[in-house]
Amino acid sequence: QVQLVESGGGLVQAGGSLRLSCAASGSILSSNGVGWSRQAPGKQREFIAFITSGGATRYADSMKGRFTISRNNAKNTVNLQMNNLKPEDTAVYYCYAARGELLSPLWGHGTQVTVSS
């Protein structure tokens, strides 16, 4: 069964950067749009960014400028570059693959990002 696996999370000081990666076997990432969302303790899951199979991107307004989503087709990953991190960015970050209208998205298990002040 195909699984999405996030990596790259960790502890970073405010103002620092992290690069998250979403990997999966097969073609699920290259064939579908892929997005990133996050969930902080006690809060609802929040959309961050999405990239289509063709490379078009869109971002939540609050994420523009600090977060960049991209594809690495050679490594079959979708990455999220996060710069100038703030303590309020602390959350579990999830990637998901959109699989069209008839299937629900496939989610990874998440990676923890903690930003210290």
Describe the structure.
The chain has 117 residues and is mostly beta strands. The chain is 3% helix and 47% strand. It is built from one helix and eleven strands; from the N terminus they run βββαββββββββ. The protein has one helix at residues 28-31; strands spanning 5-7, 10-13, 18-23, 34-39, 46-51, 57-59, 67-72, 77-82, 91-97, 106-107, 111-116. The strands form two sheets. Strands 2, 4, 5, 6, 9, 10 and 11 form a seven-stranded mixed β-sheet that branches. The chain has a four-stranded antiparallel β-sheet with strand order 1-3-8-7, with no helix packed on it. A hairpin with a 5-residue loop joins β5 and β6. It starts with a strand and ends with a strand. 30% of the residues are buried. The model has no long low-confidence stretch (mean pLDDT 95).
| Spatial extent as radius of gyration | 13 Å
Which percent range fits the helix content?
under 10%
Query: Judging from the principal axes of the Cα atoms, what is the shape?
Result: globular
Number of helices: 1
Strand runs, count:
11
Task: Quote the average pLDDT.
Answer: 95
Q: Based on helices, strands and strand pairing, what is the structural class?
A: mainly beta
**SSE pattern, N- to C-terminal:** EEEHEEEEEEEE
Q: What amount of the residues lies in strands?
A: over 45%
Euclidean distance between termini CA atoms: 40 Å
Largest sheet: 7 strands, mixed
Which residues form runs of ≥5 with pLDDT under 50?
A: none
